[in-house]
Amino acid sequence: RLKPFNRLQIILQHLKMSNNTDSTAEVLLEKRGCAGIITLNRPKALNALNLSMIRQIYPQVKTWEQDPETFLIIVKGTGGKAFCAGGDIRAITDAGKVGDRLAQDFFREEYTLNNAIGTCKKPYVALIDGITMGGGVGLSVHGHFRVATEKTLFAMPETAIGKYLNRFSHECLFPDVGGGYFLPRLSGKIGYYLALTGFRLKGRDVLKAGIATHFVESEKLPALEKDLTALKSPSTENIADLLNSYHSKSKVDEEKQFVLDEHMEKINSLFSAKSMEEIVQKLKQDGSPFAMKQLETINKMSPTSLKLTLRQLREGASMSLQDVLRMEYRLSQACLRGHDFYEGVRAVLIDKDQLPKWKPAALEEVTDEFVDNCFEPLGSKDLKL
Question: What GO annotations for molecular function exist for this entry (predicted)?
Fold first, then answer.
């Protein structure tokens, strides 16, 4: 059981740590030169995001955005393995089961932070070195600049909750944190493919897919950070020029072909279908080794999750970021009311049998009425941005 959530404790902790550079803190917030720097500092938990971290980062981003002496914001992770591998799924699962407010508060406040990053008037530079999944994507992808390295491992593994989930992912059965906004805007149907299969991109491929804006060798990041903070009253163009100069000197994997290049034609055709049933039908008809592999992956996933995700992306393609986050908040609450989210967590984290039993178990059994219901407004409980 989750301990009763102590809001006062969090507020006191925030006041104590609002300019914290104490190395034991979960998030370090400091001003260096022209930049505000956010450092996610839970290396043993792969810098996974929890509610107290969100409650420290959000007000600091808003403060720096208004501060005439702060010209850019940099976000990074410690430990060398991960930028941020997601969010704290155990706490949310326990809270959701007993109807604790944490399950609502986490998603509401996380999406509010995602929106603050997406609308931030100051250039926002995310150094996505290492594992970047779920909540880590939300902390990076909506900002101006995303710098990938050869160590970057990017995925939106939400539909694969029964496959890829680890104890540091808060994934809620669909690619949230604004996934419905940025994924359908990637070239062709790459975003649909990534969302529905949980496919992982590595290194320079994160740039080639259009998720990162720059690629810099991991060992050069400290020098890049030093140069960024040393800029004098920089404009967005000055920051872009500096990033471009580092990017152009980075030669790692430069000659390598994009991992999905040879499959792009198939991805664009197979994942353009209007329904999950149609996608499955097209994969079967195609019959190629690539199509069969995707079919095998999709068949292991929650049918509910697949249907929610496809509709989320199709609708999100023409929505503003704010409308997408409102839609995703509705979906997050629907998932917490349902069966499959908890079943995925049970199969991977609790019993560890890796054999989730989805309900409904087949795509055909997930009715349009059920899906429509998940997208319904929540009235006074809707996300307000």
Answer: 3-hydroxyisobutyryl-CoA hydrolase activity
Report the pLDDT value the prediction gives residue 77, as an integer from 0 to 100.
Answer: 98
Strands (E), the chain: 27-32, 35-40, 72-77, 82-84, 124-128, 131-133, 145-148, 153-155, 201-202, 214-215
Interval 171-185 mean pLDDT: 91
Report the C-alpha gap between 261 and 267 in whole angstroms. Answer: 10
List pLDDT tens digits, range 97-120: 877 788 789 999 999 999 999 999
Please name the amino acid found at residue 283: L
Domain that holds residue 312: 23-252+259-376
* CATH number of the domain to which 157 belongs: 3.90.226.10
Could you give the number of structural domains in the chain? 1
Q: Is the peptide bond before 68 cis (omega within 30 degrees of 0)?
A: no
Q: Does residue 16 lie in a domain region? A: no
The answer to whether residue 18 sits within a structural domain is no
Q: Cite the active site residues.
A: 87, 135, 158, 176
Per-residue pLDDT for 169 more than 60?
Answer: no
